[in-house]
Amino acid sequence: MSEVESTPAIRLPNGWAPRPYQQSVWEYLARGGRHAVIIAHRRWGKDDVALHHTACAAHERVANYIHMLPEYEQARKAIWTAVNPHTGKRRIDEAFPEALRARTLDDEMFIGFKNGSSWQIAGSDRYNKIVGASFAGIVYSEYALGNPAAQGYFTPMLMENAGWELCITTPRGRNHAYAM
Asked: How distant, in Å, are the alpha carbons of 16, 113, 115 from that of 7?
């Protein structure tokens, strides 16, 4: 994705670069791709691509963005508090540097950016709790294990908002992700 200048000191994607095998999906998203599916093995870096794409998108278009895992509690462990073993930094701090944030609400797993955009984490097990929200970008992480009703619920919103969705998952047999 082309780097977006967010502040004089930070250029997104904040020093991160896609691995060679991530390059094609990164370029598709950077060109404005609105629906991507990544079905890949563990440690492929699916969430890293999603987090850094969302960081760039949130600073290109002021809007609300969400990263949804199958369960709310899983989202806290896998994304919100997860530490990159290569850098020793929290994954969200790498993708969404503190200098870009207006507020961080730990209990709600919510980040409000200085430019007016927001990003939060949710679980597809509780997608009804975010009724009324309006998103321009949604990541469905571990989609094969998530509730497919969440995607059905949010798709009309994304269409109305000219938004994008990224469905990422590890293969888990013949299910709704396989059908994609």
From this structure: 16, 12, 10
pLDDT above 50: residue 1: no
Task: Extract the tokens encoding 124.
Answer: 């597809």
Entry pTM:
0.90
Distances (CA, A) of 15 to 21, 78, 87: 18, 22, 12
pLDDT tens for each residue of 132-146: 789 999 999 998 888
Q: 127: helix, coil or strand?
A: helix
Neighbouring CB atoms inside 10 A of 47's CB total 21
Structure confidence at residue 10 (pLDDT): 80
- Residue 133: left (phi > 0), alpha (psi -120 to 50), or beta? beta
β-pairing, 118-123 with 64-69? Answer: parallel
**For 60-109, how does the pLDDT look when each residue is reduced to its tens digit (9 = 90+)?**
999 999 999 999 999 999 999 999 988 999 999 999 999 999 999 999 99
Q: What is the DSSP string of 9-61?
A: S-EETTT----GGGHHHHHHHHTT--EEEEE--TTS-HHHHHHHHHHHHHHHS
Is residue 56 within 8 Å of residue 33, measured between CB atoms?
A: no
